[in-house]
Specification:
Number of strands: 2
Helix content: 55-70%
Radius of gyration: 19 Å
Strand order of the largest sheet: 1-2
Structural class: mainly alpha
Shape: elongated
Number of domains: 2
Order of helices and strands: HHHEEHHHHHH
Number of helices: 9
Length: 183
């Protein structure tokens, strides 16, 4: 692996510092580099869900490594999942402002954490269902003309972490079941 401007830019794109990436890479590929790593760095990577311990990289950490590595590296990243994440990421509203309602806070935030929770959510729910649930949530929150309900929407990573997508899927399925019974 060569550290160059392109690698640093990919780290920045994934909202991770180059030294954090090097720690993950060193652990994952068992490089035995003699890095002076402060405990605070290890704790930060654990809090981001990228490390389980000083010896083990999480699945999300592995995905991040392969997302950052140059595409000509010998191993290929699970790029389909990353592309699908980007699709979901763009669907999240940037903030709670819309129409005549001003923005008061950011909704689309913490991309690395959001990606980690997205990858966890994929274990329970297909990407298409997540997209459908997010679309319904945003549409629902933008239906009122007297109140900005978008201000109550969870941030991107909390929406996935707290499995808010289940609320929108359950509502839709319950509605379809009740509608079928009435008809």
């Amino acid at each position: 692996m060569r550290i160059d401007k392109e690698l640093i830019e990919r780290c920045n794109k994934n909202e991770i510092m180059i030294d954090d990436f090097l720690i993950l890479y060193n652990i994952y590929f068992n490089c035995n580099w003699e890095l002076n790593v402060f405990p605070a760095k290890i704790n930060r990577l654990k809090n981001l869900g990228l490390l389980e311990s000083e010896e083990k990289v999480t699945y999300q950490g592995e995905v991040l490594i392969f997302d950052i590595l140059p595409k000509n590296e010998p191993t290929n990243p699970p790029s389909e999942k990353i592309e699908k994440f980007e699709e979901l990421w763009k669907l999240f509203p940037t903030n709670d402002g819309w129409g005549r309602f001003p923005s008061t806070r950011t909704i689309r935030t913490q991309k690395v954490l959001t990606k980690n929770y997205y990858l966890e959510a994929l274990q329970d729910m297909p990407h298409e269902k997540l997209m459908e649930a997010l679309t319904k949530e945003v549409e629902f929150r933008k239906t009122s003309s007297s109140e900005n309900k978008l201000k109550y929407m969870k941030s991107s990573y909390n929406w996935l972490k707290e499995k808010c997508y289940l609320d929108m899927i359950d509502v839709d399925e319950d509605y379809e079941e009740n509608r079928a019974e009435v008809l």
